[in-house]
Write a structure and sequence with these properties.
It is an enzyme of class 5 (isomerase). About 35% of the residues lie in helices and about 20% in strands. By secondary structure, the protein is an alpha/beta fold. Bound molecules: D-xylitol-5-phosphate and zinc ion. Zinc ion binds near residues 9 and 198.
Length: about 220
């Protein structure tokens, strides 16, 4: 039995007190720090980038889980790897099979873990070229772009399909879910096979983020 790990999303943290919030989630038992990088092109929103990842690397020993919601991951990947990203997520929507292979190769060559993500309307078939080589698959359960959105019902079915697809080729990547995950949704995605839950508002938009994190973890492991 592997406990489900929580990856709090810093997008919902207090940017004027980022060091404090990272220390808080580390102390509270988070498994990763989820860093949402948005470029204003692949998604409408614009968030943080390489300089923030560099600073985070010095501030925490938790693995940095860098979710690249950007149009040109192949160009920017080397910078994020240099900055200390431990897990790097690229979106299947912006890369063909060859691009995906190149992204995975460059992530692995840097000693980091490679993650491929699917937007809600992207079918699991997009994972076919990489399912045997990825370290983690990220299933988006909201349209990427903003924290605090509602979980898209049925996303857990996609989690189950990814688990099945991996099993069929003898692979066992971690499966991560991102978007609208909290006390009301953690149990069903965990039951479907999710290993890592990204939580933005469910952790940071609460009076006690440490307690909120522990509560989501408890519900997921029930
Ligand atoms: C959405 C981001 C998510 C988001 C999660 O585009 O990838 O990581 O910040 O926030 P919540 O948990 O509030 O949906
Ligand atoms: Zn994310």
């Amino acid at each position: 039995f592997e406990p489900v790990r929580i990856a709090p999303s810093l997008l919902s943290a207090d940017f004027m007190n980022l060091g404090r919030d990272v220390a808080l989630i580390e102390e509270a038992g988070a498994g990763f720090v989820h860093v949402d990088v948005m470029d204003g092109h692949f998604v409408p929103n614009l968030t943080m980038g390489v300089p923030v990842v560099k600073q985070l690397k010095k501030a925490t020993s938790l693995p940095l889980d860098v979710h690249l919601m950007i149009a040109n991951p192949l160009e920017q990947l080397p910078w994020f790897l240099d900055a200390g990203a431990d897990y790097v997520t690229v979106h299947a929507e912006v890369l063909d099979a060859d691009g995906l292979a190149r992204a995975l190769a460059s992530i692995h060559a840097a000693g980091a873990k490679a993650v491929v993500s699917l937007k809600p309307r992207t079918g699991v078939g997009a994972l076919a070229p990489v399912i045997a080589d990825v370290d983690m698959v990220l299933v988006m359960s909201v349209e990427p772009g903003f924290s605090g959105q509602s979980y898209i019902e049925g996303s857990e079915d996609k989690v189950a399909r990814v688990v099945e697809m991996a099993r069929a080729v003898g692979a066992s990547p971690l499966v991560q879910v991102d978007g609208g995950i909290g006390p009301a949704t953690a149990a069903r995605v965990a039951a479907a096979g999710a290993d890592v839950l990204v939580c933005g508002n469910a952790v940071f938009a609460t009076p006690n983020p440490a307690a909120a994190l522990a509560e989501v973890a408890r519900i997921a492991d029930e």
